[in-house]
Amino acid sequence: MEHSLLSDVHRATTWSIVLSLLMIVAGLLAIASPMMAGVAVTALVGWLLIFSGGLHFAYAFRGGRASAVLWELLLAVVYAMVGFYLLANPAIGLASLTFVIALYLFVEGVLELVLSAQLWSEGGAGWLLFDGIVTLVLALMIWSSWPRSGLWAIGTFVGISMLFSGVTRLMFAYGVRRIVA
């Protein structure tokens, strides 16, 4: 029984290690080619919007009242049109998504600064302040060079996220192996 459990853990962690390494490689590729990664993200968002439009269309006829059906149909058309537009114009879509991310980061940074001021007497408020400052710097970096930042921002951020997720997953898998061994 114990040998079977060890074998199962080893097999599961091996798959986790392989997937982690693939995430690390994908993250490095995205960082090395941020525009291609950004266009890929834009295409994914476009397809997700088209899919969401299809779901709104299907749901529209379950709405009951005529006004609910109409609103769901209008939402379906808007989602699908924006999705098709992103797929047809990936550069403009990438610039638009970059602007939205910069706006999001700016609002997040300001809110974190306000929260750190409100919680200053609590432990860890300094980390909130630091996080807010870093987030504002990222927003300003993107805004200061927008729309050119569309060439690097989303792809770089996605790549960094994938890289760190891969490293985290890899360390976790090795940690599980150490505990079990």
Structure in words:
With 181 residues, the chain is an all-alpha fold. The chain has a domain at 2-35 and 90-180. Helix content is 87%, strand content 0%. The protein has six helices and no strands. Helix 4 (90-118) runs antiparallel to helix 5. The mean pLDDT is 86.
Radius of gyration: 22 Å
First-residue to last-residue Cα separation? 15 Å
Question: How much helix, percentage-wise, in residues?
Answer: over 70%
Low-confidence stretches at least 5 residues in length (pLDDT < 50)? none
By helix and strand content, what is the structural category? mainly alpha
- Topology order in helix (H) and strand (E) letters: HHHHHH
What's the average pLDDT?
86
Strand content: under 5%
Main beta-sheet annotation: none
Globally, the shape reads: extended
By DSSP, the count of extended strands is 0
Q: Helical segment tally?
A: 6
Set down the secondary structure blueprint.
Layout: H1 2-32, H2 34-60, H3 66-88, H4 90-118, H5 125-144, H6 153-180
Task: Give a quick set of tags describing it.
181 residues; mainly alpha; 87% helix; extended
Question: Quick gist of this model?
Answer:
This protein is an all-alpha fold and 181 residues long. Helices cover 87% and strands 0% of the residues. It has a domain at 2-35 and 90-180.
